[in-house]
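Quick one, tokens below. Sequence please?
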């Protein structure tokens, strides 16, 4: 497509197909939906996740695009005829299809479908590009079932080399088969790694998942930085026993110890403000029966801050508190760092381009940090990143009520298109 057709009087003549985007968002929201709560459950590499992946790939093929699956299970969609993999830098756009348990229909899915929509629009326009636009659905971003959060983007960044030999989900089921069913190969993860310099830029469009844009009335969020995140998995080991015949003194009650851990984590952020937030979101007692003292409790601690040193300091204080809890409860607490992702800043040139795109569409925008983690913070190892937010109704996410206005979903995709056009034509970086 020639320049004249592309931009007339500074106005981009190219546009996404809003109805097609919103239809796909609605279609995908039916996969893994709970008929009672309306929540979406598509844990990474689960059956529902595989169904969502199949839907995306079918939509890509129907659009004349070429989806493929790498060894980590990431879906990479290219436009045929745009060159072979590796012969040009790429403009990568994407997010994730997997969800938390009973989560929302937009977290991740919206960004993947918007990336598909933009790629389809660019491919059909026959745009002359310097770097090849590609759309990606990163596998298992949430880590809701199998380890670990940011699984797919960590594979792309070459960070999965140090895997526990046979990763399993938190029920002990091996990842190997589930990954294979999704088209991946645990023994070939290295082949999913992209070389430094192969990605010119990464753009991720996402719902804000917080209240900032809705409160201010801005239509577009220009992300300045993504929070750092440490996820620790703990196993508290005590001694199971009869709840009626075991005297209180001498017990080593793993549930009582775990309760202290939950409050210690909350204390780090809420009272001592050593990091921005700290959350115990998963707690699995065993044997989890009313009349048996818990022998073991597995739980997770999620620490976040935009300052990597504060996060490290908070973790050290927590580890000291765990030693005290062990002594006072007669339990043992094993700690494994499941994920450590550093806070990252968005590329200033991409931020400026996103603002320019929003201005071109007459959309009020503001700069804000992301309290949620995103694949972008891992891809940042390899390439400059830009993130675009649209408002979340009520500022909520990871719950069935997660929602955004359709006009905002369309607006965000239009900002992604405009930004992608300029980055793909080599006029930004
Ligand atoms: O947990 C997060 O921040 C993201 O939703 N994975
Ligand atoms: Mn999420
Ligand atoms: Mn997400």
């Amino acid at each position: 497509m020639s320049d004249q057709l592309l931009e007339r009087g500074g106005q981009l003549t190219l546009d996404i197909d809003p109805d097609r985007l919103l239809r796909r968002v609605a279609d995908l929201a039916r996969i893994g939906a709970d008929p009672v709560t309306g929540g979406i459950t598509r844990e990474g590499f689960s059956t529902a996740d595989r169904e969502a992946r199949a839907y995306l790939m079918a939509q890509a093929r129907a659009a004349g695009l070429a989806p493929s699956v790498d060894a980590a299970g990431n879906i990479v969609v290219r436009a045929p005829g745009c060159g072979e993999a590796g012969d040009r830098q790429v403009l990568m756009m994407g997010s994730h299809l997997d969800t938390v348990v009973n989560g929302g229909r937009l977290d991740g899915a919206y960004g993947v479908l918007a990336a598909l929509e933009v790629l389809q629009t660019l491919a059909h326009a026959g745009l002359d590009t310097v770097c090849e636009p590609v759309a990606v659905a990163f596998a298992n971003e949430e880590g809701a079932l199998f380890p670990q959060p940011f699984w797919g983007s960590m594979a792309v960044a070459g960070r999965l080399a140090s895997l526990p030999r046979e990763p399993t989900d938190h029920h002990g089921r091996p990842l190997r088969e589930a990954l294979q069913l999704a088209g991946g190969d645990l023994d070939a993860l290295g082949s999913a790694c992209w070389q430094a310099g192969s990605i010119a830029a990464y753009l991720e469009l996402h719902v804000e998942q917080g209240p900032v844009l809705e409160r201010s009335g801005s239509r577009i969020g220009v992300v300045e930085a993504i929070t750092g995140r440490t996820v620790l998995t703990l196993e508290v080991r005590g001694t199971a026993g009869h709840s009626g015949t075991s005297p209180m003194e001498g017990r080593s009650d793993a549930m009582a110890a775990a309760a202290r851990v939950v409050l210690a984590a909350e204390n780090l952020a809420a009272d001592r403000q050593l990091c921005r937030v700290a959350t115990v979101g998963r707690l699995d007692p065993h044997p989890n029966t009313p009349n048996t003292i818990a022998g073991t409790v597995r739980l997770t601690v999620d620490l976040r801050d935009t300052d990597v040193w504060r996060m490290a300091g908070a973790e050290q204080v927590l580890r000291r508190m765990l030693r005290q809890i062990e002594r006072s409860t007669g339990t043992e607490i094993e700690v494994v760092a499941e994920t450590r992702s550093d806070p990252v800043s968005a590329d200033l040139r991409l931020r400026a381009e996103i603002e320019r795109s929003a201005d071109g569409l007459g959309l009020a925008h503001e700069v804000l940090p992301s309290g949620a983690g995103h694949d972008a913070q891992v891809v940042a190892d390899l390439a400059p990143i830009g993130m675009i937010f649209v408002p979340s109704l009520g500022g909520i996410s990871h719950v069935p009520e997660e929602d955004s206005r359709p006009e905002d979903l369309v607006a965000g995709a239009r900002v992604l298109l405009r930004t992608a056009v300029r980055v793909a034509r080599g006029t930004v970086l």
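The pocket of manganese (II) ion (ligand 3) is lined by residues 96, 107-108, 141, 206, 374 (CB under 6 Å). The longest helix spans residues 308-329.
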